[in-house]
Amino acid sequence: MQFGFGKVDITPRVGVELYGYGPYLCRHSVAVREQLYARALAASDGESTFVLVSCDLCTVQMHTTEEVRARVQEATGLPPDNLCVHCIHTHSGPATKLGSGWGVGDVPYIETLPVRLATACVQALEDLKPGRLSHAVVPCEGLGYNREDDVRPELADALREDWRPTKPEITDTEAHVLRFDGEDGLRGFASYFSCHPVVGPQTSRYIHSDYAGVATNWLEREHPGSVGLFLQGCEGNINSCVVHHSEQESLLALDVVAARYARQVRPGLAEAKPVGDTTVAALRRRCHISCASVPEEELRAMLAEREAIIKDPSASDADYNVRMATVYARALRLELQRRATGQSADETVEIQGFRLGDLVLVAAPFEIMHRYKRRIQAAFSTPVLVLSLANHSLGYAPERESFEKEDNYAAKIVPYLLGEPPFAPTIENELVEALTHLASDLGAVQA
């Protein structure tokens, strides 16, 4: 196999609004705590070549991915099917979506982003050299808790090295470590783990890449000349153990948790064993995801309820409930407009997969819940890494039970906040089946 790496600084200018945590928070950045990067890995076996670029961003939109693919194809000839734009999901990076209440996208940043991401990809392709891939699985604990079915720990408890969630079985407890060596030793690495990397409160104003990016920066500095990627797994219902505390507490906790992650990944770089296969492959396809059939009268009732909040004579835009009602109202109006024009509610989404020797990576444009990963991996005897937030952002892929919970955030609230109809409870089986077939077609060995 051949491998190549690219790395480009994608830190925005201070002052741009940061993405996440709540509606219309006006979290305009005040300083850079840690630089943001786009890190690209190119892999080739002489017949097939692909590029995966990992970005220190919350999300990207499909139009950004399409422009990156077009630019890289023009510069190198790489087919669009063979390029994936992946995000680590930091909530301390710039908003990259226009018109979202979760942070106003900065137009100059969004316009220049595809060029920067394409540059990292082209660097990686031009850097292709013969190399060896090694792989390890290491214990990785004390980082996250399942926010739907467990309780958030007190900060003092979470900062203890022996802290563990009360239900570790519904979190990720292992990290995959990939090591890429050339003639002169380590050239690059990647770590794969499932946990919202977010460390901070709604008031956080510092630009950084949360614990996952900070830990990756540290590991790179320990190996000068290397490029490290963080690959975000099925983090949809897993939060970091130090989220939602004060800004100053969070900035201190950031280093503690980053060090905890780096310390557990580090042995994987030393213990990784060479993979036995040298095949490289890429596949991209579309899959159908069903949306819920919400009656129009129910949508109109929801809209009337939100408009009553907004139009109340005492309403203030400083009120969280008013801001949240505004996001809802905008989304519901869009959905009713979509109904009026006869547009289908169901989604056809892009999924993508890659093979790296004995390893298979499959990716989808959702924040995927952790059980999806367990179900997909259980189907195979060889490693299959399931990546969230690839190429686009369509909200959460909830578990079946989430749809039975009243006002469930992932299943019933977020779709409207994004201006989309909610998915049907069948999404879990539909997406698991599609990603399992994709992994199988890429050569993952059935269990």
Oligomer: single chain
- Helix proportion of residues, in percent? 25-40%
The poorly predicted ranges are: none
Gyration radius, to the nearest Å? 21 Å
Record the strand order, biggest sheet: 5-4-3-1-6
Report the principal-axis shape. globular
Structural class: alpha/beta
Q: What is the count of helical runs?
A: 10
Taken in chain order, the helices and strands follow as: EEEEHEHEEEHEEEHEEHEEHHEEEHEEHH
Number of strands: 20
CA(first)-CA(last) distance: 26 Å
Largest sheet: 5 strands, mixed
User: How many domains, in number, for the residues?
Assistant: 2
How large is the share of residues in beta strands?
A: 15-25%
Question: Could you tell me the mean pLDDT?
Answer: 95
Description:
It is a single chain. The protein has 447 residues and is α/β, with parallel strands linked by helices. The protein has two domains: 2-274 and 351-362, no CATH class; 296-340. It contains ten helices and 20 strands. The protein has helices at 62-76, 107-126, 155-158, 210-222, 247-271, 296-311, 320-340, 370-378, 409-417, 427-441, and strands at residues 2-9, 31-32, 37-44, 49-55, 83-87, 129-130, 132-139, 144-146, 174-182, 185-193, 206-207, 227-232, 238-240, 273-274, 280-289, 347-356, 359-363, 367-368, 384-387, 396-397. Strands 5-4-3-1-6 form a five-stranded mixed beta sheet. It has a five-stranded mixed beta sheet with strand order 12-10-9-7-14. A hairpin with a 2-residue loop joins strand 9 and strand 10. Helix 4 packs across helix 5 (247-271) and helix 8 packs across helix 10 (427-441). The longest helix is centred in the middle third of the chain and has 25 residues, at 247-271. It is globular, with a radius of gyration of 21 Å. The mean pLDDT is 95.
